[in-house]
Protein 1
Amino acid sequence: MYKNILVAVDGSDSNKVAVDDALSIAKEIGAKVTAICVFDIGSYAAVAQGYGMGDEREYMLETSKKSLKYVSDKAEQMGVDLECKVVTGRPADAIIEESKNFDLVVCGTLGRTGISRTLMGSVAEKVARMSYCPVLICRQAK
């Protein structure tokens, strides 16, 4: 069934549901998990306060480590085989490209609707529509 699972990680509280589900599925069926953290330099360049021009890579690595800590700790506790991967690019595009190498993609969603979804775009929606494998979208319970 699923031997290789890709879970998109962004470090947000809402993303923990996707991480928990991906790791639970993997533990249950003995699958390997790869956690991907996509760093969109265009989105984060203005946020990188305290870092000078050219230091985006340092900021990216620090931010990515924080984002991957939860999934790493949780996988170790559960005994799930985990690989962490950090890439730069547009999150949806990077996840879709990576999906070629996996049996299942797991990602979270904030559950935005209406104009906020239209303005922000939806990584989960684009991944679900364009992925090369099945996609599980996880949302926090309300």
Protein 2
Amino acid sequence: MRSIPRSMSLAAFIALSIGSGASVWAADPVTDAMQQAYGPYRVALFRTNSGSVAESQQAIAQAQATWSQIVSQFGSKPAAPYDRDTKFVASLSEVTAVYAKAADEVSKNQLSNAHETLERARDVMAEMRQRNNVIVFSDHMNAYHAQMEHVLIEGVKLMDQPQGLLQLLAQVGALEYLASQMGTQAPASLTSNPEFMGSLKAVQQSVADLKAALLAQDAAATKAAIGKIKGPYSKMFLKFG
């Protein structure tokens, strides 16, 4: 995942992150607003994983401010299709609580805890869309992320089990499919973007390298390839997620 250039303010970086996905927002105002708020959210996730308390505080404050606008605008009167969602207000409140908890953890220099706390906001937003039959490109990236985390957490453990390489190959097969889906489900506004396509290619190549190591039954190469899975995705998520 790339770092924010020293010459660029956090606000400018957030604007860049948001702008890259502006044309892939949905047709309803609530989803559009949530997608706009997703840019600052991604930066907050990144910052809490980078070791800087001050920059994490600033990023979370920006994410909170953007989310507060959604609560203010739609909390009492959500637009369709969310107007029939009986859990809508509760979900808005849960994301607000996630940000508050993460901000408190950052103030106590608990950046790892704050990062894990923030992960919940992604799930809540995805659940809101799913309940209301709304699909955005972020959902495909989230599906890949969930499977990637499973491979990262369980991959090395599986290698120590009987037929572990074969079991891991099955998991990587699912990851390969989801990496492919990120390409086939991306809107034209992204597939026509050379930077997006470069990022996607890097993600898909990292999966292909892991699959090749598994097919060769090379344990050392497999462990090395597992270690290279997260980086390309993180870079892609920060700007296009």
Protein 3
Amino acid sequence: MLAVLGLAISLGLLAFVFKAREFRTFDHVLGGVVVGLVVVGGWYLSGHIGHLAEDPATLEEKFLATNSGRMESLSFVAPQAYSLELLLLWSDKSRVMTFGIATVLGMFAGSLAWSLATRSFRLESFRDAEDLINHLVGGALMGFGGVLALGCTIGQGVSGLSTLALGSFLAFFAIIAGAALTMKIEYWRLMRQT
């Protein structure tokens, strides 16, 4: 039943996405395929290759190279915190490179490599002080929301939805509602200025 439900949701989302002509570009399709493959690969690596049915030291089930001690896939909220923790406590031998930390570093390296390969690399800055403040407030709200929702748009909205977790559906729709509300507020502010 879960497989049928997952397939139905996937096909519905694909039909919705490919309905828009603007999405049907090489970059968008490639990005979607790569993210999907990375999520599936993450579940496979952490849940199959990194799985020990019985750890020789503790005789308990263990998932290697994960911060949670469970199966993990693509996410960025907690892995960024673990990355900072690894940098801060680098001399602590109990801190090791995990799947989540590797995904954060891989995201930076991969996006840099792609921007250099496609000659689209550029430095960007803020328009003015108000733009800087908006980004700081937005970043703080996103960080707080990511921790509160136990994941971000990738962790809950992609990896979590791939497991058909009810909490991920709740977080996903809350993310969409928050984004829509923010766009309405920003549009209202823009219209008020003109």
Protein 4
Amino acid sequence: MSALLRGEWIKFRSVRSPWVMIAVAVAVVVALLIAGIAVDSSKGRDPAESLAVSSTFVIVLLLVLGVQLIAQEYRFGTIRATFTSVPDCSRLILAKMIFGVAVGLVSALIAIAGSFVVASIVANSYGHSIPIDARLVETVSGYVLAAGISVALGIAVGSITRNSALGITAVLLDMFVLESLVTVFASEGLGSVLPFRAAFASIPATSIRSGLSLWFVAVLVYAAWAVGLAVIGTVIVERRDP
């Protein structure tokens, strides 16, 4: 497994687009957190809410990143060499999922840590500090975990679609259209356990409401979707690719 993870790292660092998306995601978190915390916290704005504002954009970027981590290999034909060296599809998908989770976790941690350092400096210049309470800690924890799962979920979707455009379209369509329709026309309870409703419920301070009142339960539901889709993707890959 360690050799597979090293291989994923080599492929990851040799391509420019993942780094660009991570840089954009980090920049968005930094900009919104500085604006929300450093300027508006003196007016009573919850710093956890300032962090949660960026969650939708960052989750979308990390999902897209996850899709591309595997779909780009199909696009450029490098997946053939990968399957030649690693004929065990389940181990390959597992390695990609583990690597994707690590990428998402590290990206979120860097974004949040950098944001709080810069925001604290700016906040001090306004004569106030960033209050750290239980809600903020829960929001940061849920944010980081949701970020890691988002990359893994994107990889799972990419293993099913094998096409970046199709995978990204499926993710965005479900996130912004299908889940809203289910919530409105079917039931709130059913809608709350759908993947992206669970993703946003993982972040306590988000403005998107869900029937999952406990953020760590929402994290487990979101992770279950990633694992379930990865199993489906593995079965499909084993049947059509080797």
